[in-house]
Design brief:
Belongs to the glucose-1-phosphate thymidylyltransferase family. This is Glucose-1-phosphate thymidylyltransferase. The protein is of the alpha/beta class. 34% of the residues lie in helices and 22% in strands. It has a seven-stranded mixed beta sheet. It has a two-stranded antiparallel sheet with strand order 2-3. Helix 10 packs antiparallel against helix 11. The longest helix has 18 residues.
Length: 296
């Protein structure tokens, strides 16, 4: 499976904070926002990842993450010149996807929950059709809304409905088989000239190949689209980290646990940030995992 992070847009609701920097580079507690979606892809075991952003912001992401090799990843970059809809990620990233399935995640989506990595691993295996993830919200008119029957079967998807049939919003995490590339190429753009992800999902639904996974109690899907929600997301992460004694979306820790890097490489990554609590946390992880004699 290949991975794509869509981190474009102008984030006008966060102006003036985002006038000169991508929203996905703003901090959520102690780390850049893009660490959170990147951590989700890593937890699936995805190591070949494309980050799509604006012409101005791609160099900033490259400066932050490089080619990903320090984390045992391969990270490439592509430009989205103008907002063209979420599904445009599949036309921009067609060569990156190749003949594989793909996990697409929006760069401003934060997920956290008990056994979340186990759920992701299970649902990302042998994807046939598409796998969508739903979460209950208080304001369903703002989202793409899923209607399910008593058995959990997906019945309909409606984008920002005036009269929602449920409060189950479709989140910004999607798994697709390779058909998504051809489906997107044959989509008719919306009146705004965008390729809508809901139209892609409707094609799969019409084929009987759209599956919805409901993220119930114990899971958090956090919004970062406004100053208030961004601050609340940071408070949530800070509270959970302090209570549990572990860090959410620590890329170095995930790379170590997944076997992408060894303890020595993890330790060296921590040393670069040793003046911060985050860096010392990474160094402690590496020590616990066992360093070579030259670094211990």
């Amino acid at each position: 499976m290949k991975g794509i992070i869509l981190a474009g847009g102008s984030a006008t609701r966060l102006h003036p904070a985002t006038l000169v920097v991508s929203k996905q580079l703003l901090p959520v507690n102690d780390k850049p926002m893009i660490y959170y979606p990147l951590s989700v892809l890593m937890l699936i075991g995805v190591r070949d990842i494309l980050i799509i952003s604006t012409p101005a912001d791609v160099p900033r992401f490259e400066s932050l993450l490089g080619d990903g090799s320090q984390l045992g990843l391969r990270i490439d970059y592509a430009v989205q010149d103008e907002p063209g809809g979420i599904a445009q990620a599949f036309t921009i990233g067609a060569d990156h996807i190749g003949n594989d399935s793909v996990a697409l995640i929006l760069g401003d989506n934060i997920f956290h929950g008990t056994a979340f990595s186990d759920l992701l691993l299970e649902k990302s295996k042998d994807v046939r059709g598409c796998v969508l993830f739903g979460s209950e919200v208080r304001d369903p008119e703002r989202y793409g809304i899923a209607e399910i029957d008593a058995s959990g079967r997906l019945l309909s998807i409606e984008e920002k409905p005036a009269s929602p049939r449920s409060n189950l919003a479709i989140t910004g995490l999607y798994f697709y088989d390779n058909d998504v590339v051809d489906i997107t190429k044959n989509l008719r753009p919306s009146p705004r000239g965008e390729l809508e992800i809901s139209d892609v999902n409707q094609v799969y639904l019409s084929r009987g190949q759209a599956n919805l996974v409901v993220l119930g109690r114990g899971f958090a899907w956090l919004d970062t689209g406004t100053p208030t929600s961004l601050l609340q997301a940071g408070h949530y992460v800070q509270t959970m980290e302090e209570r549990q004694g572990v860090r959410i979306a620590c890329l170095e820790e995930i790379a170590l646990r997944m076997g992408f890097i060894d303890a020595d490489a993890c330790y060296r990554l921590g040393v670069r940030m040793s003046s911060s609590g985050y860096g010392r946390y990474v160094m402690d992880l590496a020590r616990s995992a066992g360093l070579s004699a030259s670094l211990s």
